[in-house]
Write the structure tokens for this entry.
Amino acid sequence: MQKIVNKISSSLKGTITIPADKSISHRAVMFSSLAKGKSIIKNFSKGQDPLSSLKVCQALGINAEFNGNLTITSDSKLSAPTSNLDCGNSGTTMRLMSGILASRDFSSVLIGDESLSKRPMKRVIEPLSLMGAEIISNDFKAPLKINGKNLHPINYTSKLASAQVKSCILLAGLNTDGKTSFTEPHISRNHTEIMLKYMGANISITENTELEPKTIEICGDISSAAYFIVAGLIVPNSKIILTNVGLNPTRTGILEVAKKMGANIEILDEKIVSGEVVGDIQISYSNLKSCTIEGDIIPRLIDELPVIAVLATQAEGTTIVKDAQDLRNKESDRIKAVVTELRKLGADIEETPDGFIINGKTSLNGDCEVETYHDHRLAMSLYVAGLICKKTISINGFEWVDISFPEFDKLFNSLIQ
Ligand code: S3P
């Protein structure tokens, strides 16, 4: 689908509620499937990725009913699937489910779409194999045939700061006797640790642990809020409020960076919902200056870097993003894709092996077609850039937005004055 985006002639104004967090939705459905009894998930994401996790859990025998909320009923055991388990486009589904399936008493095969079948799985196959798992892959890529085994615990030190790898190992450890530990170079998102604790797990995971069924209320996704945060900062005269946004400190790197760049952002109300910090964010149009983004903060804003690149085109000076080489292993090579497409719009941006360098402030011209590389975050970042281009842009493959944020366009339209 091609999406035409025009420059906003006025501004963005109003209050919107940000839809459910994708990462937390995946975990809510998977962990509820591991708990014996009835769990209730409030505000489950409508994105295709979390729905892939739900379908995989259903194929493993759990019962799911939508009646406003999502009710999951499980005997906690999971049963052998009768066909391949389709993870669609979702890396989180494939990597977390690998950890869950490796210790079961049956075999299963995880498959994915063209993009997911190209993404690296060695990062989970290697540590799971150290635990005794038997996984047959296509040169460390999907499909993954997992022959369930009794696993043994490990103390694993990861070279990557990846919440998917960490979660995979913790989930394998959950069903394994003995103490499993995972050490990461920088802290990555910790929704797994928070939700496992909320469901009664001994998170130092010293023994085979059972989860309790719970009511889990899912907050709004800061990665979805990011497009509105950036748009509010760069579209002149804008003032918007985003409600019910997850503010887990392992995800709020974008707020820290934006503030460092001079953004006028305020947190209005903070509370804890199902173990997670949640609040409202007020954003006003701001004069921005460049900054360097590197090191520890990278895992805390990894998914926001494409739209942060758009932000940096509107900041005075040179913004440098480094230490983000894993961006090349996402739904697309996001370093190459962002640089190629923003250049078409007139941005002064240069590719580096582990990030990009952007010279601002540039007035974006547009008047061209841009590509999404089958990547939802590229599609939404380019849309935000389109709002300030002098001339119309056409985004090819805009339907990929549905992977995480089907409500995206409607919510933007509700803010355009
Ligand atoms: C995710 C972790 C991150 C992130 C992805 C979702 C998760 O990936 O990029 O969109 O839900 O655990 P990595 O763990 O590969 O960094």
